[in-house]
Design goal:
This protein is mostly helical. It has 2 domains: 227 residues, Rossmann fold; 79 residues, Orthogonal Bundle (Tyrosyl-Transfer RNA Synthetase). The chain is 50% helix and 6% strand. The protein has 13 helices and 5 strands. Strands 1-2-3 form a 3-stranded parallel β-sheet. A two-stranded parallel sheet has the order 4-5. Strand 4, helix 8 and strand 5 form a beta-alpha-beta unit. Helix 7 packs across helix 8. The chain binds adenosine-5'-triphosphate and magnesium ion. The site of adenosine-5'-triphosphate has 19 residues, from helix 1.
Length: 354
């Protein structure tokens, strides 16, 4: 594991609620790949946050934890450049969650549109756990524990990053004496423990799901997974909803999910333009376009499938253990600095993994 303290940091993570899908790739993974040479990158499995909706199914959370790391590695995330780690084994994150929860109003949290959206689309009604409301606070700790400059995320995460920025400012003002008029970029140099991190969205910041409406999501049954077999990809593409009643109706070009996938995954933009023009002129139907989309997606997934087949569960555990040890060193440094600022610096300590 190479350490590179001189490089600016990047932090991001995924919840192990299923395999990664195409939305993750274009929304976040692509940025992680592009950044891993020039930044000190940390990527974590949010296995504690997976319990918000799956506390009764811990076996799946564990299996998905391994699987998600395989997804990263098969996409080309290099554990020699990017620190891959497990959220549940970073005690500093759990502790920072408490401190940050004190700096965030309940009303502010409930105004977060992503929280409201998740309650709605996941049909949680009034039945979400207290821990569900804690997860955005935990996410603030996940991020700030690493004092990153950038957080590569999809569009749905922007409200969480905004809340993270607010809490970082509040902590720095309250405990580090940073003047509230300070520019976000100057918080660290003005004496703040926490630099104000920025979200970095991907080439496609919100890939639509097969339902043609919601964002592609692991939990909504509308995703094409990186692990899907070629035939599954074709079957799923055949189900893409375009809003068109019958083939006699004119094609709907706006918010057309098949066209969105072609643009995102076809390697030849000229061919996509040609297909779009023929579709608009009703020379091609939905069926043809869906076939082209599936072919493009399968071509994109082939090298990922090949790499995945070579990664074992033991490889994943070894990589996670080394990464988690390194991540703990960084997170402990942050926690200690935060405790010093907040006059909670009674004893120093070390974390050892066995
Ligand atoms: P869940 O349904 O369990 O919330 P998810 O599919 O939303 O799962 P997350 O693990 O919550 O996936 O998200 C991981 C990262 O991928 C986040 O940065 C998120 O913004 C991004 N992401 C997820 N879905 C999409 C999408 N459809 N388009 C672009 N980015 C996405
Ligand atoms: Mg999500």
């Amino acid at each position: 594991m190479t350490t590179s303290p001189e490089k600016p940091r990047v932090l991001t993570g995924d919840t192990p609620t299923g395999s990664l899908h195409l939305g993750h790739y274009v929304g976040s993974i692509e940025n992680r790949l592009a950044m891993q040479d020039e930044y000190d990158c940390y990527v974590f499995v949010a296995n504690v946050h997976a319990l918000t909706t799956r506390a009764d199914d811990v076996a799946s959370v564990r299996a998905d934890t391994i699987s998600i790391v395989k997804d990263w590695l098969s996409c080309g995330i290099d554990p020699n450049k990017t620190t891959l780690f497990l959220q549940s084994e970073i005690p500093a994150v759990a502790e920072l969650t408490w401190y940050f929860a004190m700096l965030l109003g309940y009303g502010r949290l409930m105004k977060n549109p992503t929280v409201k959206d998740e309650i709605r689309v996941k049909n949680l009604g009034e039945n979400y756990s207290f821990g569900f409301l804690m997860y955005p606070v935990g996410q603030i700790a996940d991020i700030l524990a690493f004092r990153p400059q950038f957080v590569p995320v999809g569009e749905d995460q922007i409200p969480h990053i905004e809340m993270t920025r607010e809490v970082a400012r509040r902590f720095d003002q309250l405990y580090c004496g940073v003047d509230p008029h300070t520019d976000d970029a100057e918080y660290a140099s003005a004496g703040g423990v926490f630099p104000i991190p920025a979200a970095k969205t991907g080439r496609v910041s919100r890939l639509t799901g097969l339902d043609g409406v919601n964002k592609m999501s692991k939990s909504l049954g509308n995703a094409i997974f990186l692990t899907d077999e070629p035939r599954q990809v074709q079957k799923k593409c055949n189900k893409i909803f375009t809003g068109r009643g019958s083939m006699d109706d004119p094609p709907i070009l706006e918010n057309n999910t098949i066209l969105e996938y072609l643009k995102a995954f076809h390697t030849d933009p000229a061919r996509v333009e040609e297909l779009t023009a023929d579709y608009a002129a009703s020379k091609l139907g939905d069926g043809h376009l869906k076939k082209e989309a599936a072919t493009a997606i399968n071509a994109f997934l082939d090298p990922i499938r090949a790499r995945r087949a070579r990664i074992t569960d033991d490889d994943v555990i070894d990589i996670l253990k080394a990464g988690t040890a390194k991540a703990n060193t960084t997170a402990e440094q942050t926690l200690w600095q935060a405790k010093q600022a907040a006059k909670f610096d009674f004893f120093e300590r070390d974390i050892t993994l066995r």
